[in-house]
Amino acid sequence: MSSQKLQPPRGTRDLIGDEFRRHHRVIKTARRISALYGFEEWATPIFEDTRVFARGLGETSDVVSKEMYVFEDRGGDSVTLRPENTAGVCRALVSNGLTQSLPRKVFYAGPMFRYERPQAGRYRQFHQIGAEILGVAEPLADAEVIACGYHIQRELGIAEGSVLEVNTLGDTESRDAYRAALVLHFSAHRDSLSEDSQRRLEKNPLRIIDSKDEGDRRLVADAPTIAAYLTPTARAHWDVLRRHLDAFGVPFRENPRIVRGLDYYSHTAFEFVTDRLGAQGTVMGGGRYDGLVEEMGGPPTPSVGWAAGVERLAMLLEAGDLTPPAPRLVNVIPVSEAEEGVAMAVLQSLRAGGIAAEMGYRGNLKRRMERANKQNARAALIVGEAEAARGVVQLRDLDAGTQEEVPVDALVERLRG
Ligand code: ATP
Ligand code: MG
């Protein structure tokens, strides 16, 4: 190995200490709240057949066209590190024959991979939590999945800092009409569009609305919105969704500029945005994807869901909002090597009884007491020759500085109190 120090790959991070605890708190909270809404957790592979993500020629999203980790494995198959988990969940629904037992409500948490330019809140390996309701066409599902996402942010104490922005992308008919109107609008300004957007104009003009380019954004400001092109069905879905959000007590703002980064959405599209994370302002995003399960080879399965970046949610947590620290330890101390065996039995009986405990690996009584104090142990259990013979230990309360003799049998009970 060269003498150069090894570093984590660009755009990846080690989660250690407080950083891990914050991360863990987000996932634990999301797990608990999503269960209250009836979601069951799934875990799908972190790599999939590339076709799960790149479906046909229509794919124009940045994620699929520029950001995927695609490689050929040793068997010559093209596989991709998942950039998101919705496609994997839909694939799993079909692979496992679960399209016969709908609806399903699925929660997931895990790492995702995108080849992006790393910056604060944007990584190449990051983590998402997500919730999907599969097999429900009613806008009640859209509202419920959003309410769950909002509830998670409330529970994390960060809902105040983010705003829910919702939009409708209509059904296919609405979108076709809207697309024609957009093509008309942007074609008139073709030369002022960014190179990317000129390409989008051909392939998927809706994407232009999502462009981050300054020049594009000016043209987008005068572009028509979809409202005038909604079919009665699409309008009904949109109206009912907003009523349901009110009924669930979820505050929101309408934003006709939300189209979302992935190509498969219809009807509802939404984002929770914050101004507290600089350029990386979207913490949670999602929408309805009625055609995706079918693209995976399943039957038509109207579905809706969201994903949220765990790192971004964790960045919003205050320093004081960490997962409670690990329980304070009890430190078991054999006075000499002869008592080590007895001390080890005591140690295991504590752990079996649900008491967090440790024993040092070496050192005399003084060294071991120092270690117990240094790790902020709540008690030291001293096992000397006389104690070992009588089945007792000296229990020293390290906070109070008091010491008493306690029978080994009574220890768990005593330390639980
Ligand atoms: P952005 O506009 O920030 O690139 P996106 O539209 O690509 O986001 P989605 O595909 O909707 O994001 O993913 C949902 C959430 O996952 C985002 O809102 C964000 O919180 C998080 N996320 C996406 N990409 C990254 C990344 N590279 N690093 C960290 N978090 C990410
Ligand atoms: Mg992105």
UniProtKB/TrEMBL annotation:
<keyword id="KW-0067">ATP-binding</keyword>
<dbReference type="InterPro" id="IPR036621">
    <property type="entry name" value="Anticodon-bd_dom_sf"/>
</dbReference>
<dbReference type="InterPro" id="IPR045864">
    <property type="entry name" value="aa-tRNA-synth_II/BPL/LPL"/>
</dbReference>
<dbReference type="InterPro" id="IPR033656">
    <property type="entry name" value="HisRS_anticodon"/>
</dbReference>
<feature type="domain" description="Aminoacyl-transfer RNA synthetases class-II family profile">
    <location>
        <begin position="1"/>
        <end position="334"/>
    </location>
</feature>
<dbReference type="Pfam" id="PF03129">
    <property type="entry name" value="HGTP_anticodon"/>
</dbReference>
<dbReference type="InterPro" id="IPR004154">
    <property type="entry name" value="Anticodon-bd"/>
</dbReference>
<keyword id="KW-0963">Cytoplasm</keyword>
<keyword id="KW-0547">Nucleotide-binding</keyword>
<keyword id="KW-0030">Aminoacyl-tRNA synthetase</keyword>
<protein>
    <recommendedName>
        <fullName>Histidine--tRNA ligase</fullName>
        <ecNumber>6.1.1.21</ecNumber>
    </recommendedName>
</protein>
<comment type="similarity">
    <text>Belongs to the class-II aminoacyl-tRNA synthetase family.</text>
</comment>
<dbReference type="Pfam" id="PF13393">
    <property type="entry name" value="tRNA-synt_His"/>
</dbReference>
<dbReference type="InterPro" id="IPR015807">
    <property type="entry name" value="His-tRNA-ligase"/>
</dbReference>
<keyword id="KW-0648">Protein biosynthesis</keyword>
<dbReference type="InterPro" id="IPR041715">
    <property type="entry name" value="HisRS-like_core"/>
</dbReference>
<dbReference type="InterPro" id="IPR004516">
    <property type="entry name" value="HisRS/HisZ"/>
</dbReference>
<comment type="subunit">
    <text>Homodimer.</text>
</comment>
<keyword id="KW-0436">Ligase</keyword>
<dbReference type="InterPro" id="IPR006195">
    <property type="entry name" value="aa-tRNA-synth_II"/>
</dbReference>
<dbReference type="GO" id="GO:0004821">
    <property type="term" value="F:histidine-tRNA ligase activity"/>
</dbReference>
